[in-house]
Amino acid sequence: MTLVIERKAKRRLVHSPATATRIATPTFTVKDVIAASVTLEPIICANIACPDPSSGNVVFNQGVGDACCEVCGEWQLDLPTEISGLDNHR
Ligand SMILES: [Zn+2]
């Protein structure tokens, strides 16, 4: 006589719709791009004087390791704001 012991692993499917917060328009800063080591778009311009910071015209330059806003022409890491906390320029 053979005894077959079945172990059923019950997995609970937890649904938590409250935590599923949807962000309508995902945006990133140059810090996010550097942290992810990939180009995330759109990058928002960190220049507080930029006329259109969320225009999507901030282009990350892999060679320089910084992103330049085509609206105001500012390099993101050169901006005198909190975002320029990374001081790894060569
Ligand atoms: Zn700008």
- How many angstroms separate the termini? 74 Å
What is the count of β-strands? 2
- The amount of beta strand, in percent, is 5-15%
The chain-level structural class is little secondary structure
Rg (C-alpha, Å): 23 Å
Q: Tell me the helix content.
A: under 10%
Assembly type: single chain
Provide structural commentary.
- The protein is mostly loops and 90 residues long.
- The chain has a domain at 30-83.
- Helix content is 8%, strand content 9%.
- It contains one helix and two strands, in the order αββ.
- It has a two-stranded antiparallel sheet with strand order 1-2.
- It is elongated.
- Bound molecules: zinc ion.
- Zinc ion (ZN) binds next to loops.
- Zinc ion binds next to loops.
Characterize this entry briefly.
The protein is largely without helices or strands. It has one helix and two strands; from the N terminus they run H-E-E. The chain has one helix spanning 30-36; strands spanning 58-61, 66-69.
Helices and strands in order:
Elements: H1 30-36, E1 58-61, E2 66-69
The structure holds zinc ion.
Zinc ion (ZN) is lined by residues 45, 47, 50, 53, 69, 71-72, 74.
Features:
single chain; 90 residues; little secondary structure; two-stranded antiparallel sheet
